[in-house]
Design brief:
Layout: E1 9-16, H1 20-32, H2 39-56, E2 65-72, E3 76-82, H3 105-112, E4 115-121, E5 124-132
Antiparallel strand pairs: 1-2, 2-3, 3-5, 4-5
């Protein structure tokens, strides 16, 4: 039976399209990654990607949802947020003015993540950020 078991562990969470769900998704991520060196960065990425899904796609509508997936292997944490689409443009990094209260989320994610992948179309996209735990003795992801 071992040949059918994979080393990475994967968790999924379906979130209704309300702002309170971003808080729940952060807490869920914190609980799963409790004690992991990338837990804080992962929690921040979940917050940014979940908020982006609610703000910029149909996930934030009355009956919208977003799907959060965490994949954990020996040193890697992959965080994926899938939205319900409804926006023709692919997510992109924006240059926010110093006084703007929005527009920095994807820039923050890109600064924290080792890798960022965006797949899908206007019918639904998945944004995946990959964090890699530091070597023994290092302190940040």
């Amino acid at each position: 039976m071992d040949e059918y078991m994979s080393a990475p562990r994967v968790w999924g969470l379906m979130c209704p399209g309300s702002r309170e769900e971003v808080t729940r998704a952060r807490r869920w991520t914190r609980d799963i990654l409790n004690g992991h060196p990338c837990a804080h960065d992962a929690e921040l990425i979940v917050s940014e990607l979940g908020s982006n899904a609610l703000t910029h796609t149909a996930s934030g509508t009355a009956y919208g949802t977003f799907q959060l997936t965490l994949s954990l292997s020996a040193r890697t944490v992959a965080i994926s947020v899938t939205d319900e689409g409804g926006h023709p443009e692919e997510p992109h990094r924006a240059e926010a003015d110093p006084d703007d209260t929005h527009g920095r989320g994807l820039t923050i994610v890109m600064a924290l993540a080792r890798r960022l992948d965006i797949t899908g179309s206007q019918h639904g996209r998945t944004v995946t950020a990959q964090l890699v735990a530091p070597e023994a003795g290092a302190t940040t992801c």
